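Entry 14. Structure prediction run on the chain below.
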Amino acid sequence: MDVYVPGPRAMEGTNPVNKKLVAALSGGAALVLALTGCGGGDEDKKVNDWAKSVCDEVQPQLKKIQGANTAIQGAADEQDSKKLQQTDSKAFQEISESYGALAKAVNKAGPPPVDSGDKTQQQAVKELNATSGAYTKLKTSVDKLDTSDKSKFAQGLKGVADELDKLSKSGDQALQKLQEGKVGSAMAKQSGCQKPKTTGGATTQS
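Output returned:
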C-alpha cells in the first residue's frame, strides 16, 4: 500500500521510486527463496548430500538479502536524499556479496549428481556471479547520484530502479534449472534453503 509523502514537488517521485526498488529487490531474492515449497519425491543419498552442502551455505545469504530488502523498504518514505542514498548503496553491496557467496557455494559443492549436472552447475555459478556484478554496478550508480538536488536525485534513482527491475526479471534461467527435478526437491527439504523467519513483514511472497 503506497503512502503519500508530503513535501516539495521535486520529491514527489522519490517515494514511489524507492518502493519500486523494494519490489525489484524482492523479485531478485525470490530466485533463491523460490526453493521453499518445492514438491517432494524419493531422492537418492547423493542428491540429498549435494543439496545439503549447498543449502548449509545458503541460509546466511538469504538472511542478508532479506535484510537488504527490509532496509530499503524501511527507507521507502525517507525524504533525506543522503540517507536514502546510503541505505540503498549498502543494500546493493550486501546483495552483491550474497550472490557472490552463493556462486562460491554452488561451485564448491561441485556438479549435482544428475544428468547434465556439470553444465547446470557451471551456468548457475556464471549467472550468480553476473548477478553479483550487476548489483555492484547498481551500487556504483547510486553512489554517483547528486544528493544536493532532490529533483535530479529522484530522476537518477528512477534510472537505478529501472535497471534493478530489468535485473530482477532476467537472467535466472540457470537458477531455475538448478531448482528443477530431484535437485530442487532435495534442496527444498533442507532447512538452509528454507525462507528465513522475519519479524518485520518486509518480504514479499513470490
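The chain has seven helices and no strands.
Filed with the rest of this week's runs.
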